[in-house]
Amino acid sequence: MREGLIVGDLEEPSVVYGVHGTTGLSQWKCLARRAGLFGAWEAIEWAWIPPGGISGEHVHTRTEELYFILSGRGEMTLDGKPYPVGPGNLILTGLGTKHGLRNVGDEGLGWLVVELLSPATAAVLRGSAHTPPTPSGGSDVTNAVVLNLRQTPEVDPRSVFTGPLRRIRLVKLEPGQREELSAEGVEHTLFTLRGSGESASGEATVPLKYGVSVTLPLGTGMTVTAGSNGLEYFQAILEVPGGGAR
């Protein structure tokens, strides 16, 4: 085990004004960041805007980003085209995609963000040369897509992303059911959506409820056990090439 689990929650979020050039307030919390991890993560974050709130349109040139909608009703704009989104929608935005999010409902709009370094950016940070890869989706490659993770609970993001993110899952466990997770050659991040339970790694246990996230650095492992009312969580799995050498 190289390093311990990284645990986050939604307590005491920051209040931010003017996200990506707009007016109005939002709430934000960083759940995990690149420090302490070996893969090409930039950050795992939670964000929230009130009714009528906007996260302004912007472009990423060094990171790829996914949004997973947790609550509320929104309108996601991708390169000028609007898409209605709500709980369970997964939005993948590749390099250079102009994107923004507006709350069009009468309750708060909350979402999870997983931001990942592009291969070129990761290579620069490592001080190594880089040959730009081609996404593995072949002729079906697109630069952004809106999916429903509740209808398709496992997604391969490589039709959009060029980096090492390999799987995105919506996991549902029945009461008492367990799942073993091992960060051998990969790193995991989990965000609890419904129900309760616990994650255990060695002698350490983490109670799981809505809003609790657990990120597994390379070389760690844990057992997730659902409580009496079951457990549901979002999971992203990122490959760590070369054993995580820095």
From TrEMBL:
Keywords: Metal-binding. SUPFAM superfamilies: RmlC-like cupins. Transmembrane segments: none annotated. Coiled coil: none annotated. Residues 49-114 form the Cupin type-2 domain. Pfam families: Cupin_2. InterPro entries: Cupin_2, GPI/OXD, RmlC-like_jellyroll, RmlC_Cupin_sf. One of its GO terms (molecular function) is metal ion binding. It comes from the Bacteria. This is Cupin type-2 domain-containing protein. It comes from Cystobacter fuscus.
